[in-house]
Amino acid sequence: MEHPVNDRSSASTSDPSLMPSLGKDVYREILEAAPDAMVMIDAEGRIVLVNRQVEALFRYRRDQLLGQPIEILLPGRYQHGHVAKRTHYFESPQVRAMGTGRELFAQRSDGSEFPVEVSLSPMKTSLGPMVLSAIRDVTEAAQARKIVQFVSDQLRARNKALEQFTFLASHDLQEPLRTIESFSGLLRTELGDDIAESGYHALHYIEESAQRMSRLLRELLEHSRLGHLSAFDPVDIGELVREVLRDLHAAISESDADIQVDELPRINGQRAELQLLFQNLISNAIKYRRKDEKPVIRVEAIRRDNGWEFLVDDNSIGIDPALAEKIFLPFKRLHSREEYAGTGMGLAHCSKIVELHGGRIWVTPNEWGGSAFHVFLPHVRPELPIPATDLNEGS
Ligand code: ADP
């Protein structure tokens, strides 16, 4: 198909001389067809032009608005301040949204208010400087925002209540436990040889259970304190992992573990919590090693678009993919205490720490048949799911 050389429809519209000359009626129709309410005011703030949407949105007839100050469309409490603002705007006019970061309200003819978004465009016309405002009713979006805010406030309040309950329960339950421990110790020393063999066994079970319960309560207490241990600061993860390895020195040399650590980044986070995260992942990789192989562990970091993905890879006994999500639940274990010691809280701690950083943790099988724990930590932490409050508050 042939195109004429001077086909105006394909000409650049940035050159006004090449624009098709449209009649006034066409410009009027364009204005009327705009989805937003359009209001034009002069330098005195008087309304000189409105479209159909203004009539529908504000429930005025056009003739009731023309010549009126723009403040007629604002709730009374904003009218006075607006006069100064628009005068200031005419002094240095620019295309921009109005009231960024603030909620704006408009007022209908019956006095009812509704939330709006307004964008302003200054214009030079033959009648002098003007400002064209596009006004959009955002009632639905504002309602949706309120619902999201309400639900997240509720969630935060419940998380806080649950955290306080866990803290107090685990703290207060230590007390009767200490009594059980001290009285069973007393029985053992006081009665000594007078206790029958079966009594000794019973006493042994009581002591063992009390110790275990005490450990579980300590873990619960630690869990509820996570997020309160340190502030958000720049943390050198390479240095932090080296410290973790020093702390795990005994387990590493006893198992002859081979641990390779790549270059790791500096990130923003809570140091004590992140240390616990890497300590749990690395000590698990050693603990769940195969009986006939020395543990080989690799720690690395991969830069992603909006954060870092850390990887703790091992040649351990591996994890059944069907149970890969369950292991992050508190007290969830895949093995008996006789096989591998533990309380099942390590990965629950990890999960909470990662959540506090706005990230995600998951595990996949790797090429050695072991486990690869992935931790994604975003550069920017979204709003905290659990508010950092004083745990003792309200106790
Ligand atoms: P614990 O080690 O005290 O049982 P965790 O919460 O740290 O508690 O781990 C939960 C379960 O996940 C463990 O019981 C174990 O079965 C499994 N697991 C954790 N880390 C590894 C790993 N590196 N390799 C294989 N299994 C693991």
Write the layout of secondary structure elements.
Elements: H1 24-33, E1 37-42, E2 47-50, H2 52-58, H3 62-65, H4 76-91, E3 96-97, E4 104-107, E5 113-125, E6 128-137, H5 139-191, H6 197-225, E7 232-236, H7 237-247, H8 249-255, E8 258-261, E9 266-270, H9 271-287, E10 296-304, E11 307-314, H10 346-356, E12 360-365, E13 371-378
Parallel strand pairs: 8-10
Antiparallel strand pairs: 1-2, 1-6, 3-5, 4-5, 5-6, 7-9, 10-11, 11-13, 12-13
Bound molecules: adenosine-5'-diphosphate (ADP).
Summary tags:
single chain, 395 residues, six-stranded antiparallel beta sheet, 42% helix, 21% strand, disordered C terminus, binds adenosine-5'-diphosphate
Description:
With 395 residues, the protein is of the alpha+beta class. It has ten helices and 13 strands. Helix 5 packs antiparallel against helix 6 and helix 7 packs across helix 9. The protein starts with 23 loop residues before the first helix and ends in a 17-residue tail after the last strand. The model is unreliable at 1-13 and 385-395 (pLDDT under 50). Adenosine-5'-diphosphate (ADP) is lined by residues 280, 284-285, 288, 314, 316-319, 327, 332-335, 342-348, 371.
